[in-house]
Amino acid sequence: MSATEALGRFRAEVGAAVTRARRAAGEVGERNAKLRERTRELARQARERGVEPGARATSSDVREAATGFRTDRGLPVEQLPDAVELTAPQAHPAVETAPVATLGSIAVAGPSGQLPRASDDDEDFSQSRILY
After folding, report:
1. pTM for this entry
2. CA of 55: how far to CAs of 24, 40, 64, 93, in Å?
3. pLDDT digits (tens, 9 = 90+) for 11-23
4. How far is residue 13's CA from residue 7's CA, in Å, rounded to a whole number?
5. Which residues 6+ apart lie within 8 Å of 10 measured at CB?
């Protein structure tokens, strides 16, 4: 085998290896993206307490290991309710309430006990609520 043939064969093998590596990296990237999306969905359900009663919870050992991993690397660790709390049956259904509007609220008496002057001059209305 000549040096030219050996070099050509080596280049072909390296090219095939690079192709396999790129394919594997792409597959792993897709799998990680699906896992991240699933984790994001589970975190959303936990925040909204939308977990079904009796659902299988992650063991505390795994949760602690995951928290330690993220903490060691300086990554944010979102504080979610405990698994027991999330999977426990609810005693009463959640009641939805209408959001309270805060715009146009009534002025509150200040430290002196006086309400701000009522006037039609709305040029500096914000200061009157702060000062009184």
Report:
1. 0.41
2. 34, 17, 19, 17
3. 999 999 999 999 9
4. 10
5. none
